[in-house]
């Protein structure tokens, strides 16, 4: 059976339970014991928003696809890692989803932002159409670089979340660039000099009453995405321990990447296996009710998550982190510096205070779309994505 056409009910009986092991289970900065905390592990996994292929949604662009089966797996993984950022932003890392329990308005606001319709901030429609500007036709497979660039652009319209999204290129994270981005002195609601009207909130997928909070903030919550290539055709074993430690950090949003023929959202590891959510099952599109609530059970993976050997990971990935405060960011920097001293582990990226001299212009970091340098960068991103696609055939 083609994995792209499996249904949720088919899949739910095919996953293995966690192995009986003394190895700790790490899920997005939290550690668990299989022997004493199995229920807590599954509850944590189930609480992550799970976006899969959908069918029978409104046609993308009015005349385009009505399903993303077969081509949208990386787009769905991008939705999942960004949804985790919104959960941390509005609900907190310790929030849990319980089947049948009434959730808060903020939860439904987040879910509405990803519903498959053209006027939701991070819908498959918005991602696919924004990807055209990145050189990707609607229905074309994305690599992790492209989906990161698209999500950054879409986040500028999400005034409710008011996120600072930074994509660190060239395997380099420049601290001063991030502080400049996040420590803006203007109102935190994102262009709050022009506040969104109620109709704007409704247009962008939020029910009436969605509230913009934290308008006066000295730090815009940071979503840091780092596209990386950890080998030529296979992952270099020297990076494996470093990759594991990324899942141990409390700021972790996980990793988007894949293995041959598929993209996955990696949320943790146990032993030498990665733990991931798989978007490769087709479910019917869901529509919110008049009050903005959505039948939400199909957006949560209610079976044990998938696992795969770290050695099988395609080397082209994007790692994500969320720093809600400046203190979170400073703590993350300290952890990365300590990680660089880990014996036998190769750093996946470089952390520097100032922009390196070989970065000829700020567009390397800030990606101004209208500059010729940014055009060159976009072509570079596309070539990287093509490499990923070739490796994934």
Automatic annotation (TrEMBL):
Listed GO MF terms: cysteine-type endopeptidase activity; protein-phosphatidylethanolamide deconjugating activity; scaffold protein binding
Keyword Protein transport: yes
Protein family per UniProt: Belongs to the peptidase C54 family.
Catalytic function, reaction form: [protein]-C-terminal L-amino acid-glycyl-phosphatidylserine + H2O = [protein]-C-terminal L-amino acid-glycine + a 1,2-diacyl-sn-glycero-3-phospho-L-serine; [protein]-C-terminal L-amino acid-glycyl-phosphatidylethanolamide + H2O = [protein]-C-terminal L-amino acid-glycine + a 1,2-diacyl-sn-glycero-3-phosphoethanolamine
Ranges annotated as spanning the membrane: none
Protein encoded by which gene: ATG4B
Keywords: Autophagy, Cytoplasm, Cytoplasmic vesicle, Endoplasmic reticulum, Hydrolase, Mitochondrion, Protease, Protein transport, Thiol protease, Transport, Ubl conjugation pathway
Name of protein: Cysteine protease
Domain Peptidase C54 catalytic: 39-335
Main location: cytoplasm
GO annotation (BP), single: mitophagy
Function: Cysteine protease that plays a key role in autophagy by mediating both proteolytic activation and delipidation of ATG8 family proteins.
PANTHER family: CYSTEINE PROTEASE ATG4, CYSTEINE PROTEASE ATG4B
Cellular component terms per the entry's GO annotation: autophagosome membrane; cytoplasmic vesicle; cytosol; endoplasmic reticulum; mitochondrion
Class in the EC hierarchy, top level: hydrolase
Location relative to the cell: Cytoplasm, Cytosol; Cytoplasmic vesicle, Autophagosome; Endoplasmic reticulum; Mitochondrion
EC numbers: 3.4.22.-
């Amino acid at each position: 059976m083609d994995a792209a056409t499996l249904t949720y009910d088919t899949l739910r009986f095919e996953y293995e339970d966690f192995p009986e092991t003394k190895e700790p289970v790490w899920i997005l900065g939290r550690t668990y014991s299989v022997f004493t905390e199995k229920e807590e592990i599954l509850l944590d996994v189930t609480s992550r928003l799970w976006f899969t292929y959908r069918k029978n949604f409104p046609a993308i662009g009015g005349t385009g696809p009505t399903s993303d089966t077969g081509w949208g797996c990386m787009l769905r993984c991008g939705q999942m890692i960004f949804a985790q950022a919104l959960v941390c932003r509005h609900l907190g890392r310790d929030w849990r989803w319980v089947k049948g329990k009434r959730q808060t308005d903020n939860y439904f606001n987040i879910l509405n932002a990803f519903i498959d319709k053209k006027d939701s901030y991070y819908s498959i429609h918005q991602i696919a159409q924004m990807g055209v500007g990145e050189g990707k036709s609607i229905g074309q497979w994305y690599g992790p670089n492209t989906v990161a660039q698209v999500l950054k652009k879409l986040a500028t319209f999400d005034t409710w979340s008011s996120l600072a999204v930074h994509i660190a290129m060239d395997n380099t994270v420049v601290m001063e660039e991030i502080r400049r981005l996040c420590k803006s002195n203007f109102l935190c609601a994102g262009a709050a000099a022009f506040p969104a009207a109620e109709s704007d909130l409704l247009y962008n997928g939020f029910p009436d009453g969605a509230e913009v909070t934290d308008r006066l903030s000295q730090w815009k919550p940071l979503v840091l995405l780092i596209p990386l290539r950890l080998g030529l055709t296979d992952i270099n074993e020297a990076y494996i321990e470093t990759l594991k430690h990324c899942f141990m950090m409390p700021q972790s949003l996980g990793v988007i990447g894949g293995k041959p023929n598929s993209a996955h959202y990696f949320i943790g590891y146990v032993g030498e296996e990665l733990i991931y959510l798989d978007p490769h099952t087709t479910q019917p599109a869901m529509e919110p009710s008049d009050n903005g609530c959505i039948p939400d059970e199909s957006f949560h993976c209610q079976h044990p998550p998938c696992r795969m050997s770290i050695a099988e990971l395609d080397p082209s990935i994007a790692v994500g982190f969320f720093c809600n405060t400046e203190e979170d960011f400073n703590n993350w920097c300290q952890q990365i510096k300590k990680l660089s001293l880990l014996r036998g582990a190769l750093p996946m990226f470089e952390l520097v205070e100032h922009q390196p001299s070989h970065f000829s212009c700020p567009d390397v970091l800030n990606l101004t779309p209208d500059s010729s340098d940014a055009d060159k960068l976009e072509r570079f991103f596309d070539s990287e994505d093509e490499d990923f696609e070739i490796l994934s055939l």
